[in-house]
């Protein structure tokens, strides 16, 4: 697949309106004439029959379309590079897809780095983030020859310099800067994000001191700076302001140290639509705004325009993912609430329990039927907090129905767990009427695979 290939399907963010329920569908999802939800040309009920449930379904064409929107906005324009934030969703198949679309890769652990290597991803296109990288992880990154390490603190800087010196290599690095921007306010409070576990704080002078320190390291090649102002951001002006602040900092560094940054990484955080309350911007508008902001600041300060890097994760995969569940028990408390339990829950989607995250859903096998009742979707864990969706309007729900929860492509599989010794679901990529397993369903045998019984207990 060549980067930027035209799919002829839909641009980033395009949504189709469901029939009577009025819910928004994403990517290739649609309701067919039989009233069945289809994803990638396959009926959701058929996917469950073939692959079981719960089931993570990833719309491959939608992922590629989102990748291409970023590629066109930042790479094809000559402004810089797009690196996919793999923490959102990572498998070896996803690494292959990202490579084929011309994007780089952002990893935050040795496990993610190892996965990329096993998938054959070009190591020179990998950036390594994290606030507490171990010596083992740093050594692995150096031995793999990755493209860049984003240094988070002085402790890491010293150890990386030593490890690189022992190997006789000079490592390209960025410094992670905490700019002090509260991205969720309109007045851009400059002290709002100083208190963070990540990076060197800019307003306190720590960031400038860190640049001086990295320039003194013999085995580190200082490329530039990185910042990340938050997640699920809808206000494009926040990104513009971050670009202006970071370019101002780059100007200070030039005056103080005589160095010119070659790379400006503005991180990720571009928001997506989970529910009707979310109103995301268009990737093209986002790209245009931050590119112009950087260029204008460079011109104003008589500086070279640095290579611009962005790190989308959620906005690449979230809307491309749908989780399919089978409805089991139904409990109605007259005058209070109707609980509908599914065969998954917080083990495959902990975000509602952790963050109070909101999702939309529909009955895949009754997708064209009008809503008749309001129910609450609960998971199967022995945990009162295992609630997926409160007060959801649906057609008449019956045991055996297939519930499709949309926009589960980011931080669902990635954060899944084995609480109550429940196995993780399979992950299936769908495209052009076919589904392919990219992660096998965990079995009960898998759950005990690493267990050991001490010899003293076997006597």
- What structural class results from the helix and strand content? alpha/beta
CATH class assignment of the largest domain: Alpha Beta
Multimerization status: single chain
CATH topology of the largest domain: TIM Barrel
Number of helical stretches of at least 4 residues: 12
Please characterize this protein's 3D structure:
- By secondary structure, the protein is α/β, with parallel strands linked by helices.
- The strands form four sheets. Strands 6, 16, 17, 18, 19, 20, 21, 22 and 23 form a nine-stranded mixed sheet that branches.
- Helix 4 packs parallel to helix 5 (135-144) and helix 8 packs parallel to helix 9 (283-300).
- It is globular and about 70 Å long.
- The longest helix has 22 residues, at 236-257.
- Helix content is 28%, strand content 24%.
- It starts with 14 loop residues before the first strand and ends in a 12-residue tail after the last helix.
- It has helices at residues 44-51, 60-75, 92-100, 110-118, 135-144, 154-167, 206-215, 236-257, 283-300, 314-317, 351-355, 444-447, and strands spanning 15-17, 24-26, 30-31, 37-39, 42-43, 55-59, 80-85, 104-107, 126-128, 148-151, 171-178, 200-201, 220-226, 263-265, 307-310, 321-333, 337-342, 361-363, 373-378, 387-394, 402-406, 426-431, 434-439.
- It folds into two domains: 15-59 and 318-448, Lyase, Ornithine Decarboxylase, Chain A, domain 1 (Beta Barrel), CATH 2.40.37; 60-314, Alanine racemase (TIM Barrel).
